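Exercise (ungraded).
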Amino acid sequence: QSALTQPASVSGSPGQSITISCTGTSSDIGAYNYVAWFQQHPGKAPQLMIYDVNSRPSGVSSRFSGSKSGNTASLTISGLQTEDEADYYCCSYTSSISWVFGGGTKLTVL
Amino acid sequence: QQKLQESGPGLVKPSETLSLTCIVSGDSITTSNYYWGWIRLPPGKGLEWIGTISYSGSTDYSPSLKGRVSISVDTSKNQFSLRLYSVTAADTAVYYCSKKNGGTSRIDYWGQGTLVTVSS
């Protein structure tokens, strides 16, 4: 099972919006609505930001939203804040009865 | 509020077995619809799913690790464990235990992570 494809890095200025893409195949993202996004600050455990494509856990800011089209999922962060600077990982269920992560995207808030 | 805490050796020799335990507090490990899992973060790389064990004891493992990995539950101690056999330097990583709700991608609780280095 190959890792999902994410851009290595994205950047934006405070207040702007950014989108991180996550590309898979018809055997993972394209087949299931089980896509999650995690935020990870250095030295910390990952934190769930979005699950099941577009659901947000309680306590996560509404500035974070998720979507999916075909084999590609996306995470959008609006109104960028400096504390959003972190690594972001997508994750999907697969037809191999397993889960696969993306390679991670480093978000820099300029 | 659930809490997960990993424990185990921080250094393992090549070809030996990596063993980690995750102690769960705040909820029963046998709660229906909970899946307990292990995920790792190799240095300089992305997260990698290792496997899960369900509340009923059924397991699923990463295809790339199948044959070298085993996850088990000790209900008397409310904890679950990971065993990774025949380790190499490529298994050096921060290992996280996690909890997921069944029927969703909601991995909502994570341990703080523990670094395991494979080296002689």
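Further reading is listed at the end of the chapter. For now, observe: Residues 33 and 102 of chain B are 5 Å apart (CA to CA). The interface with chain A takes residues 39, 45-49, 60-64, 96, 104-108, 110-113 of chain B (CB under 8 Å).
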